Amino acid sequence: MVNPIIKVTDVTKEYPGTIALSGVNMEIYPGEVHTLAGENGAGKSTLMKILAGAISPTIGSIEVNGEKLTEFSPRTSSEKGIGIIYQEFNLVPHLTVEENIMLGKEKRKGLFVRKQLNTQITKDVLEKMNIKKSTSTYVKDLGVADQQLVEIAKAISQDVNVLIMDEPTAALTSDEVESLFKLMRSLKENGVAIIYISHKFEEIFEISDKVTVLRDGNYIATKPIEELDYEKLVKLMVGRELTMSSRARTKKEETILIAENLFSKGKVANISFDLKKGEVLGVAGLLGSGRTELAKVLYGLYPITSGTISVKGKTYSKIDSPEHALKIGIGLIPEDRKKEGVVLGLDCEVNTNLGATKKNSRGLFLDLKKEKSISKEYKDKLSIKYYDGQLAGQLSGGNQQKVVIAKALATDADILIFDEPTRGVDIGAKQEIYNLMNELLREGKSIIMISSEMGEILNLSDRIAVMKEGELAGILPFDKATQENIFSLSSGISKDLEGKT
User: Distance between CA 32 and CA 194 in Å, rounded?
Assistant: First the structure.
C-alpha cells in the first residue's frame, strides 16, 4: 500500500479577527496531481503557505513521508523536498533570469561561483520548458507571462518530491499551458506529487487526478476527478447552484470616445476606433500584441506621439497622466494588480479611495466620512472580504482584484478599461464581476475589456477589436465574432472580417 507523501491533520490557522483555516484534513500521494479548489478566501493559499513553511499552523499537524514537522520554515520545507510556485511572483527584478533561477543554490567551487555550470543548468531547465529567453536577461525587463515562466523554472530547477503550483497559468498562452502540462505529466511519471491551484475549470478537468474543495476555510470534500463534472464542482465550491448570466445586446447609437490614428512610439501605431455609450468593446490578441500598451496610452501612462482622442465631444492630442485621464472620465483596472493596482502596505479603505482623493476633499482636508461610505459601498457591492484596517497585501488574490476594481469605480469614470479583470479570480467572484459590469452598462458607463480568456471575450463583448504587433488588425461585429476570426486576424492570416487571406 502506498503511503501519503503529505498528511494534513486538523490544521487550523487563526489571524486577528478571522479564521483562515479550520480543521482541514488532506492526504497527498506520490505521482498524482491533486487540485485544491475553492473560491477566493477559501483558505487555499494559506494552506499552501503552511506546507511551504512560510507560516505555521495555529493548531494541527503536517506529516511529510510519515515524519511530523516540528518546525515551519521555507528551509525546512525545501529540505523535505517541497517546492512552491506562488501566485504572486517571488523574483528579484534586478537580477538576471539565471541569477533568479539559481538563487540560493548556486554551484560553487570553494568561495567561487561556477558560472559556466550555473549557466548550463539554467539553459537546460529553460529548454525543458521551451522558454526562449536569454539567461542574462534581467527579470525587470520581462513581461508578466515570461516572469511566470521563470518562476516555474526556478521551482523545478531543484529536485522536489512535492511541487505546489498556485495559479501557474494565469498569465500564460495556450501553447505555454500545454508545455507546462507536458512537464507536469513528466514529473508525475517520476513520482513527484503536484498540488495544483487553479480557477480554470478546463485545466482542472484536464490535468487533475483528485480534487479537494475548501469553502470559507473549511474542508468540504475530496473526489477523484472522474466523479466530478462542472456543475458538481461549482456546487461543492460555492454551496449552491450557479447560473452564469447572459446579456442582451442592442445597437448602441451614442459615441462616447473616438481614437484617430493614435501612435505611441514603441508601443502602438495607427490605432483608430470608436466606443459607444453602454457598450463593451473587447480587445483580443496574442501575447505581446499591444493590448495592454493601448490601455496605458488611453490612461495617460504612455505618451501619444501623434493622433487624437475625443471623449464626449472634446478632442485631445495628448493625455498627460492618469490624473488627466480620470479628469476626462477614463479609468483603468490594470493587468498587474500587485504592482499597479493596489498599494500593498495600505489598508483596503485607503486603497479604494486613492483615485478619488480630490473628489473626496474639502479644500485641504479629506472628507473621511465620505471615504468610509464609499469604501463600504463597494465592499458590499463586490462582496470584498476584509476587516477594518486590514492591509491590501494580506488579502487573497481575488479579493485584491476586487479592491482594484472598487478603486476604479470610486472615481466615477464614464469609460472603464478592464485589463484582464478576472485573472486569478474564482468562478463565484467572476460572476460577481460580470454582474457588476452589466450594472455599469445599465448606468450608461462604457467598457473597454482586454482578456486572454476566449469565452469571456466572446460572451461579454458587443464588438471585438483584435490587436497584432501593436496595430489594430480589425474590429469584429458581434455576428462575426468567432474564435476562428479572432485567431485569423491576430495571427495575420486574415485581413478582413470574412476571414479571407
Answer: 6
- Cell readout for 293 is 500598451
* Nearby residues of 139 by Cβ (< 8 Å), 6 or more positions away: 91, 92, 93, 94, 95, 96, 97, 100, 147, 150
**What is the pairing mode between strands 108-109 and 59-64?**
unpaired
| Model confidence pTM above 0.90 | no
**pLDDT tens digit string along 403-430?**
998 998 888 899 999 998 887 777 777 8
pLDDT value at position 242? 52
User: Could you tell me the end-to-end alpha-carbon distance of the chain, in angstroms, rounded to an integer?
Assistant: 59
What is the CA angle 41-43-44, rounded to 5?
A: 110
Q: Choose which CATH entry (3.40.50.300, 3.10.20.880, 3.40.718.10, 3.90.1300.10) describes domain 6-238.
A: 3.40.50.300
Q: Are the beta carbons of 300 and 324 closer than 8 angstroms?
A: yes
CA separation (Å) from 455 to 320, 452, 481, 490?
35, 9, 11, 16
Segment 173-192, tens digit of pLDDT: 777 788 788 888 988 998 99
